[in-house]
Protein: DUF1840 domain-containing protein
Organism: Pseudoduganella albidiflava
Amino acid sequence: MLITFKSQTSPDVTMYQEHAHRILDVLSKSHTRGVITAAEAAHAIKLLEQEVALSKLHPEVDAEHANHSHSHHLPDEDESAEMAEKNHIGFAQRAYPLLEMLRAARDGGDNVVWGI
């Protein structure tokens, strides 16, 4: 399932629900629908930037999380390591479009909404 984030100050950002959940958990926001107001945007940016920094400091944890998010079957150990190397898209890359939207919303005084 997809979640689409919307703001009048930037193009829509659409991502898979399982990837959006981690971002929304960091922000303590509902997975189904919600709003990040222009006043909240600066704090949301700070929280996401901290999580991005942590994910870069501990890439093995980030890769582990990515493997669990994408697994449709249980790969063996060698297959899991190979998948992590080939297909790993980290938290930083997944969060980047929403971070850009939040920055534009903050600067433009607009809200970011989803599930509406």
Q: What stands out?
A: The beta strands are 2-7, 10-16, 34-36, 112-114. The first helix runs from residue 17 to 26.
